[in-house]
């Protein structure tokens, strides 16, 4: 794996710094994410149907033309006796409403009086209690509402119109209520209703001024506990509670037209066209469409015989109704504000149906010069583009109807017997003697069987809309724009034929982040996916598990709904299936981990625990192994008894031991340590101490706790890991173990106290070692712990003496600006602020269990929307990075309170790709690599042209000194060319600076470490298009053995430490600082490996796995003093390390071979048995070459094909200097060799070993002598080079 591939696929590198803010949003919940749950779900349980028609008598303020609209509830009142007609219309209206809410209590008041209306309203409010009451008013037979807030009813003899005050109506019905005014000037009733509600508010204020405190208290008590108050009579029961008068303004009102309009009288439509739109939308929609469009061979009578049922989506009528529901729901979703949509379309089933149908009513009434009125006021929706899809759908449907009816008649079935749902309302041709109760609303058996067999072409509406949603996903970015087809995708989940495709598209939609998941929950997906868990279908299980993982990550409370119906077992079963994608398995494990937090006892089963442990052994996916251990950690935290009752401890401990030793994923190794934090004490010894390779001081000890030796082994081993997140988990584990042992030491016997003291001593040494960790987040954490705990006792401080006291004082001073992690000594878990979960965390874990669950805002450089924002720089933060000269780099401010490993990975769940996603799986999905030589070694060799010897020599002779850069202090210890005119310079003071040598400007500078920057390796450039940012990656090595990977942002003077580790063993840092060996290293960016020296060994570090890959032991008398990779040489490739030793010999190590497979070439005579200070490799026009230079001044040129351990393969020798050679470098694609001396000289040699140039002075009229040369660097593709001197000056030749 190349370095760039590692950086692109290692999201865990962001754990210790700031990735996109939506990960934090997924953990703690961002403020921009609205609540999708409906807190107060209401039901319309009572319906009052007040019909004021007075059949045969028109109101005085209405002049009806002839012909005019006469149908009421699709019944012609003139076809029946007046009393029978009003009863039939009332019954029909009730049937129409019952289609939408069959369980409500209905009462019809036909031509009522005021007292009857009052009695009806009070009775329904008493029955509804705190639920909603619907009041439907048909005022076609009475005058219009008045400006005084009155509607009209009758007296007992029907001789007078009696006004009914809306103020009284409000008092009788109370809240919550919904009103439908189907009458002329209905909008006037709505406006008066709202004015009266406002008047109630004013009355409340007046009553407060007048001192009506006692009356208000009584009224408030009445509404607080309405169930316990008995109303004696309507006259003494006042529903107009002043403290809730504003609630009347929240009532829902629907009116057929505005206050200055009259109802349409077109004879082609019913008189109650507004009611027809609200209760029989398909029937009126088809008639309205037919009146505006010509369909060949189709008549109005045929519309009542569309085969099928409204609730059967497999029939023509059912599919038409299904499409109508999807379209109206989608229009509302895309037009209304989210809170209003949730209130009107998701809170109450009947209200949602009425408002879906109201969208149609607005369209129909607008065409008839009427404007319906609502409260709350809705934006216009009659001209939404989706209505064109509806018209097209209706046209396709009706075009088939004549042929379908003809084929039915040919089969011997009459048209009248094909009674679809549209014909199930009473017909206007009912005879006088036939009552409405006797009308047969059921379909005959023969026609029903035929309807099921009627062939018709399915309507392609849903196919087209799903395709449109898929196109939107292909073009989507992360701008958080809601797709208009989302409610339609929700509807198609109801159909098995569309379900798999819809779930896959939803999975892709949820990939976009938490905002997309929130939109899905807001539109109402949750009950659908909850129900789908009961489906036995295997084809949808992967998508369903993925979607559930995203939902649970967004809202942990969904796990409660999941467990309530036993849905968590669906995920356990899923883990047992074979050949499932790793993303889906990880999602299933994540869901189970949340279940263990919410309802931990649900996972206390042998089968479930065995399944979790088996996933820890998954050899195909590190992602699955990581989440298996994290899930296991959550189970152990909340149900520690599973260790004794269910888990096979021998197997589990052995698994953890092998995983930390051999697993290539640093995240998996870190998750093992995270799991160990929650292990309860186990009093049975399963392993001998020798199995853990403990430190010598711990080997003689006996342990009562079987897990403690494993924990100590992991702490001592992992504190030296190359992975920062593994070291961080080891530090947390050490702190937790130390705290537990200190508590135990207070109660144990004297013998046990001695054992505990030895363990505490070893843990303190580990913590002291980690307190100087190169990763600032780790060192700051441990420094705070050491400062707060103040050692383990005063006696132990005395024994450690003055040296430790100075160390602790240094630690206190270094952390003066670090926020305190705890307020009491020895406490870590209780004092770190925890993230605000929607669910409280379980606290029933055993006293020994402790971990850092605290989380603060992790991403300081990003906003909650995921857009980049410059982090503010504090002058007192990271003061060790401040400089007085040049342009300073702003080092990213780092939070000390970092999320736990689980919390961070929970946030990363939001970035997990769907199993069938069309995009790449890494977080940098829109990355463009700018540097050609970072793509692959093959491409680099192809693009890196080898120059002929003569051309290379001539170019060197023509080079001019183009820049002289003064570092301002300290000698130059290392150099590296970047892209373009960028030069990286390291100094003996530990400073790393970035220069534009052509302009002579230092772009930024920062402190790499306290020791000299001995090595710099330029990794290349990367551009992140989606955050409009680009940066370079630089790998540095310091003299003390610290390796760091930095991110240098180009457009902003800002750097960020990606990763770091120490290459030397812990014993190296425990000893004296005198006579310490310096770091020797070389980085291979193609294989992402680093070669470095150690105590008499050559170490190979694998950056992708963040661990020591191989260690070659060289013997007690041999140590490496220079090294390089042979990338340009094809015969060796990028896997061979070429090194020089202190005794003048050469070492070749092939990393593909075993740790014993090294070759030491006896070259002491060639190098004068002196230190080989520089080695390099070249691909020249003649042949490939290896170069080695010693302090004696000799440079040896080797043929890699002929090298043997006896020193054969030497091509030629150059005596560059007679001693005092300080550094050497060779061009990778030419035969040019550069040699620097501490005697203020640089010599350049050509292909024949002849000296081409010698540089002693700077060029220019006022030339001065160069200083002692300490470092030389050659550009990989051009003849330019640079050298640095001990006088802090760098010269660049181009």
Structure in a nutshell:
The chain has 1294 residues and is of the alpha+beta class.
Multimerization state: single chain
**Overall SS class:** alpha+beta
User: What does the main sheet amount to?
Assistant: 6 strands, mixed
What is the general shape? elongated
Distance between the termini: 33 Å
Low-confidence stretches: 18-33, 222-246, 424-449, 791-896, 919-943, 1023-1028
Radius of gyration: 41 Å
The proportion of strand residues reads 15-25%
Number of helices: 38
- Record field, number of beta strands: 38
Protein name: Raptor N-terminal CASPase-like domain-containing protein
Pfam families: Raptor_N (PF14538)
Keywords: Repeat, WD repeat
Family: Belongs to the WD repeat RAPTOR family.
What this model shows, in words?
- The chain is an alpha+beta fold and 1294 residues long.
- It is 37% helix and 17% strand.
- The chain has 38 helices and 38 strands.
- The strands form nine sheets. A six-stranded mixed β-sheet has the order 2-1-3-6-7-8, sandwiched between helices. The protein has a six-stranded mixed β-sheet with strand order 9-19-18-17-16-10, with no helix packed on it. A four-stranded antiparallel β-sheet has the order 11-38-37-36, with no helix packed on it.
- Helix 18 (496-510) crosses helix 21.
